Design the sequence.
């Protein structure tokens, strides 16, 4: 009987130890959530679109009927150096894409349009995936993509997966 109790105690201890190392999300606790700092306001993919109102008056705003299966309106807000895209979700519009459009705006890691591929990797680390024209960093339901032409970043996109 003592042997069975000892085995059960060891099994429980091992299970708890593995839980500490793996985390509650199946081992994906190291996935980063990439955010965009817009004049001190942190924007995150999946956040309520109402946060866009905190950014001030956009240069332009475009609306179109949503084709994502949920009734509502897709919106694009154009600001100096970046765009914020929203789409309808169950509880209202959410941010589903942020696009940095010129070198006047940087990621929180210091990367901007005009940065080299080597500068992106130095600032961001090794990408999750890479093609001839992009470096992709995936994290928590979104992707941060650096579009590269001739070894130079031409666009940076935060996009929902």
Sequence:
């Amino acid at each position: 009987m003592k042997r069975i109790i000892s085995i059960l105690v060891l099994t429980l201890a091992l299970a708890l130890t593995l839980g500490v190392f793996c985390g509650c999300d199946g081992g994906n606790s190291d996935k980063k959530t990439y955010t965009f700092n817009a004049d001190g306001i942190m924007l995150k993919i999946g956040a309520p679109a109402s946060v866009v109102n905190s950014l001030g008056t956009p240069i332009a705003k475009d609306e179109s009927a949503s084709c994502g299966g949920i009734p509502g309106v897709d919106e694009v807000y154009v600001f100096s150096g970046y765009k914020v895209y929203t789409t309808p979700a169950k509880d209202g519009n959410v941010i589903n894409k942020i696009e940095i459009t010129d070198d006047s705006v940087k990621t929180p890691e210091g990367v901007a349009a005009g940065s080299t591929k080597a500068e992106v990797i130095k600032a961001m680390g090794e990408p999750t995936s890479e093609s001839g024209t992009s470096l992709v960093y995936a994290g928590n339901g979104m992707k941060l993509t650096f579009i590269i032409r001739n070894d130079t970043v031409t666009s940076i996109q935060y996009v929902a997966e």
Summary: Residues 1-29 form one domain. Confidence is low (pLDDT under 50) at residues 2-29. The first strand starts at residue 35 and ends at 38.
